Amino acid sequence: MSAKIYRPAKTAMQSGKAKTNLWVLEFDAEKPRTIDPIMGYTSSGDMFQQVKLTFETREQAIAYAEREGIEYRLIEPKEPTRKRVAYPDNFRFNRMQPWTH
């Protein structure tokens, strides 16, 4: 049984950073998903795919995985690089793109 430990990124539909400070331990799929021939539903016999554990810190998640004997891989979060933009830059003389309406 293996898992990945990561900190979720902000979704495109969020403007805030709610729930992005928690660390998540999510189990990897051990069995592939199958398609039901009659109804066409996608199903799996692996119940660990439904489990997501959240932790306050990375160290707590790693300690849990080691205590339970779970192989894990740690995915470090990528911090976004913010580009500083000011309103007067729209009317700059040396603007790269022409300003049109």
From TrEMBL:
<dbReference type="Pfam" id="PF04800">
    <property type="entry name" value="NDUS4"/>
</dbReference>
<keyword id="KW-0679">Respiratory chain</keyword>
<keyword id="KW-0813">Transport</keyword>
<keyword id="KW-0809">Transit peptide</keyword>
<dbReference type="InterPro" id="IPR006885">
    <property type="entry name" value="NADH_UbQ_FeS_4_mit-like"/>
</dbReference>
<dbReference type="InterPro" id="IPR038532">
    <property type="entry name" value="NDUFS4-like_sf"/>
</dbReference>
<keyword id="KW-0249">Electron transport</keyword>
<keyword id="KW-0472">Membrane</keyword>
<protein>
    <submittedName>
        <fullName>ETC complex I subunit</fullName>
    </submittedName>
</protein>
